[in-house]
Amino acid sequence: MPVVKNAEAREIPWRPGYRNYVLAGEAQGVSVSSSLGVLEQGAGAPLHFHEEVDEVIVVLDGTLDLRIGDEHFTVGKDQTISIPARTPHAFTVVSPEGARFIAFLPRQGAHLATKYIEGDPPAGAALK
User: Fold this and answer.
1) Contact at 8 Å (CB) between 68 and 89?
2) This prediction's pTM
3) Taking the chain, what is the end-to-end CA distance rounded to the nearest angstrom?
4) Where is the Cupin type-2 domain (predicted)?
């Protein structure tokens, strides 16, 4: 199906306080991966990197404390994060209202080649 109503997207178990919904992927007949993240304050992703692919994250609502390499950024609504392949990155939601963002990876299954420097892979990583 080429059109996905975001409110009806399939949820994949991810992390405590971090809900992940598939917006585009195999079921839509595309080779890319796009997901909607809906996170509570304090939720996020531990330090990790994607071996072979870049990642783009568009923040829709809320504020993230972002680490890319050795740099820290405060990223908020209507900002876009570009993360080159093999670049360690992590984030935590700092806004009390939580955060929403859309993440893009250029190919399906790229999350399976993610290496975690801190923490473990998400619960549903193999299901995405």
Assistant:
1) yes
2) 0.92
3) 17
4) 38-103
With a pLDDT cut of 90, the percent of the chain lying above it is 77
**Distant-in-sequence, close-in-space partners of 25: CB < 8 Å, separation ≥ 6:** 32, 33, 34, 108, 128
- CA-based nearest residue to 39, from 122, 107, 112: 122
pLDDT for residue 123:
86
Take residue 37 and report the two structure tokens written for it. 């993240």
**Residues ≥6 apart with Cβ < 8 Å to 31:** 107, 108
Q: Report residue 8: phi and psi, to 5°.
A: -115, 10
pLDDT tier, 127 (very low <50, low <70, confident <90, very high otherwise): low
SS3 state of residue 120: coil
Question: Where on the phi/psi map is residue 101: left (φ > 0), alpha (ψ -120 to 50), or beta?
Answer: beta
Q: What kind of architecture, by CATH, is found in domain 6-115? A: Sandwich (2.60)
Domain residue ranges of the chain, discontinuous segments joined by +: 6-115
Would you give the distance in Å from CA 31 to the centre of its chain? 17
Is the pLDDT confidence value at 24 over 70?
yes
